[in-house]
Amino acid sequence: MYNPTFDPTKKDPVILGIESSCDETAAAVIRGREILSDEIASSASTQALFGGVVPEIASRAHTDAVADVVSRAVKKAGITYDQIDAVAVTYGAGLLGALLVGVSFAKAFAYALNKPLIAVNHIRGHIAAAYLVEKALKPPFVTLLASGGHTAILYAKTEAEFEILGATLDDAAGEAFDKVARVLGLKYPGGPNVQRCAMDGSPCIPMPKMLKGGGGYNFSYSGLKTAVINYCNTKKQKGEDFSKADVACSFQCAAIDVLVEKTIMAAKETGVDTVTVGGGVAANDYLRLTLYAACQKEGLKLVLPEKRYCTDNAAMIASEGLVQYRLGNFAKMDLNAKASIPLSATWKTGDKV
Ligand code: KG4
Ligand code: ZN
User: Is the per-residue pLDDT at 26 higher than 70?
Assistant: First the structure.
């Protein structure tokens, strides 16, 4: 009989996190906010052959890897299965078939060990990565969330309650990086390759202002993406050469500057003293440098997770699992995967959009 118990007073519970929402199969073990192990198997190199993530290939790769990745994570953590206090798994958003592999495995694992199961929302995981970097981090703070599916500025009231200050009105920042990479003929994954290409260029090509200096805390990336496509197409039609590096650099500056500007504005207007970041775009070196410099200038503390904890990983899922564990918020064995979870459905109170 599955009848797990939990101890809400336990100081540093041991949480196993499992993540399989896209092309990374990941498992990690944390004790409190300390990372004991963090394992990843990625199908990115196979996906690169197809120019993007093929859902069926991702699902098969997860099925092949998940048992081994979890067992490696537990072994490297130096714990026995019995010492695990709860199993946290990403249930959405992401590729349905990919998510189902992690969810099914986590359910079976939790059932076999008779341990509580925790359903983790992937984007909340990205935000919770900051707790692993700065163990004393406490809300309130402002978070910049910039991934392949979401771009938003959030005000964290508590570990579990957020207010959406602003969000993208169309494409996410990561999505724009991936589309620009494709236009420039750069390989998947787009973001890191645009960054690499931009290193040899200068921001000399005028780009649209987007919602810089306006639009509150909202963003819009579709105009920027279209401007890049139009620039490249016009040059090609006229038979003129152009520098891919300059295009990448001009795009990167426009895409990132607005994120930095609005994050700082949000921190100042809400009066917090700390800014955190999460999501794959937070692995971008230009963003990391400019946000660091801007926070220094404004006297704000920046909690910047290592790059591997910005892109998809399971330690962040375990970290959000810890938040839910302390709330006693557990899933049942009928937990199902969800392909999409709107940002506005993610936060309990204070939503503005
Ligand atoms: O958070 P993430 O790993 O997955 C999602 O939850 O979406 O974010 C992936 C996104 C992709 O769009 C990828 O191109 C972007 O993050 N990304 C980057 C960089 N590394 C990953 N974008 C810009 N610069 C990077 N270095
Ligand atoms: Zn992600």
Answer: yes
